[in-house]
Design a protein that fits this description.
The complex is a heterodimer of chains A (about 190) and B (about 600). Chain A is mainly α and about 190 residues long. Chain A has helices spanning about 1-10, 15-40, 55-75, 80-110, 120-150, 160-185. Chain A has a single domain (about 55-190), classed as Up-down Bundle (Four Helix Bundle (Hemerythrin (Met), subunit A)), CATH 1.20.120.80. In chain B, helix 9 (about 280-315) packs antiparallel against helix 13. Classes of the chains: A mainly alpha (about 190), B mainly alpha (about 600).
Amino acid sequence: MATLAIEQRKKIHPHKFTLWVGIGSLLMMFAGLTSAYIVKRNQANWLTFDLPSFFWYSTVAIICGSFTIFLAERAYKKQEIKKYRSFILVTFILGVLFIVFQLLGFQQLWSKQVKLTGNVSYSFLYVIVSMHLAHVVGGLLALLILFAKTLGTKIKIYNPVPVELVSTYWHFVDVLWIYLLIFLIMIR
Amino acid sequence: MSSAATLQHADVNDAHHEHHHHETFISKYVFSQDHKMIAKQFLVTGIIWAIIGGLFSVIFRFQLGYPDSTFPWLEDLLGHWAAGGKLKPEFYYALVTMHGTILVFFVLTAGLSGTFANFLIPLQVGARDMASPMLNMLSYWFFFLSSIIMFSSLFVQTGPASGGWTIYPPLSALGDASSGAKIGMDLWLVSMAMFIVSALLGGLNYITTILNMRTKGMSMTRLPLTIWSLFFTAVLGVLSFPVLLSGAILLLFDRNLGTSFFLSDIVIAGKILPNEGGSAILFQHLFWFLGHPEVYIILLPAMGMSSEIISVNSRKPIFGYMAMVGSVFAISILAFLVWAHHMFVTGLNPFLGSAFVLLTLLIAIPSAIKVFNWLTTLWRANIRFTPGMLFAIGFVSLFISGGLTGIFLGNSALDLHLHDTYFVVAHFHIVMGVASFFGMFAGVYHWFPKMFGRYLNNTLAFIHFWITIIGAYLIFWPMHYEGLAGMPRRYYDYSGWTSFNMFNGLNEFISLVAMIVFAAQLLFVFNFFYSMFRGRKVTETNPWGSNTLEWTTPIKPGHGNWPGEIPEVFRGPYDYAKDGKEFIPQNVPVGDDESKGH
């Protein structure tokens, strides 16, 4: 039985596995978008752009969010529910901040005449960044559900899977953003 | 996979142990989370779509077969789209577009994979249900929603989408391009977005269930070939559909928000559009990156089911199990590397084209291995010609016939002549359309007793088979000659070209056969629904004498599949004609004196 228990811990939960395959699938979508970007960039009529400073602030927010959700996950596993609730809330707020900074970034771009329909390079910038933003919104909803669950009745069984799922997803949108940021800086 | 690791699979399964919960009509038949019921939902929805899509082809065949005649009943059926009993060109294009969309996505992707991946994966790997029954249910309902949106697009005033199932811009990107590029096109895109979500949710579940939920002893090399095929199908879907989604998103932006990803220098109705800098070819790259794997998403399940059914009814092990797995793997890899062979005439760099020619022709190798193995499995076998077996053999025949013409088209030099002619129509209908339909029919006839606890009527099934196989060849074989003579596809009326007048009689003949074959499909539909309620009852758990685990369940398995423990697996699925025994199911332990063969 002891061996079985150890084996079970090593075994990835089906839902977590599903999430990883799903992440692979989402990556393919962004691979499609960024490949199209590269192909188009090598053709005529491509204008370069500078990324707005607010995108850097949003990067700080999402990286901090990754750190706080890691702390939340750790607190949950230690069954420190108050700490867990606070960290989830902080992660949520950081996520909202990320979105606000991104929107301010869009505003900055707009004021510099980098508009959605201006040039195909601008269009790509808006589409790629907003597609990522949509995925962050999805993560925020998941965080909201986790937070709401802590407000109800006292948790009797500490099932780590939902928290781990949201945490993995949140790290994913974080890493994805960093990749996109580097991509947009390097290939303009 | 180690034995220790497989031990936990059984344990993960036991989390779902015994689903004897109370079920209402709604929870059992509508919002069911039982993979078997979801499979039936996919199947019935697929059949309804197949009737609609098939009917569309019959209607446009009337136009192609009898371009100078009028049919008053068409006006009764289609209203102003067939004023005076003559189909309007705009609606002809809408019918062709919707026929392609419905058959490729709604029938041969959702109807085929959705049905058999859902039905067979848990039953054949030894799991009580999918990894996530909830996501599985959502997968069906996203498909349903997508179906409703697509169906409603048939009734909008400007007509459904009409830019072809490949929705190439600029036709699809500009609302003013044609009547079918207006709201019908928007609905098409929204419907397909829902469809992609459905396909992804399903695919994630299939992959996870196969890799994570196998019963004790079910190592990967003991999986039936159906499961291997469904696994690679799911991988292809999960990796390629998101790329189509990215293309569709960019198209939506071009249509509605004034961007120019795919548009440049366009004059429409004398007006110069402001769009600059886009590339329509870019869309074709994004589309075909999905589009080609999609061919295999349609074909692989049919291959897997035919392999299984041929082995069971030959009473012989499948020839070259590992070669079969390897060839499906090779086909799946190559499926991602050949998309530009659809684009030889787009001005593609000839050197790049050569690379795609080479990669395309490489597909012939794993395909030939599979054909060789099917034929050697049949060779000197005690074949039982059940309806399922006939359709599986029919699949092999069609795969050979249609596959060989793929070698013609894969050559860029020949493709320059044959591109967009009826040769292409003949090729993909035989190898992808009809062949996959045969795989699907084989699957339905073979697993119907497990699905409904009743048999389909054999006499009707045999009539269905012979009319369909002969009819399919009579419809599509002549199209090769039309294509070689340069007759282009997608035209509404060929009577204006003297060069194609010699095909008037042939076109009429093809249309006539198409109507007969469509009528024969109604025979199947009748047989299906009649037998579901009135068919001969199944009285034994394993009527075909098959080795796979689905036949170890009760005749009508409940939610959870096995009433007791999930059976343990001790051997591969193809121990037929071994040690003097006709068949040895996978759950029978290996005897001490058993030979190591197979």
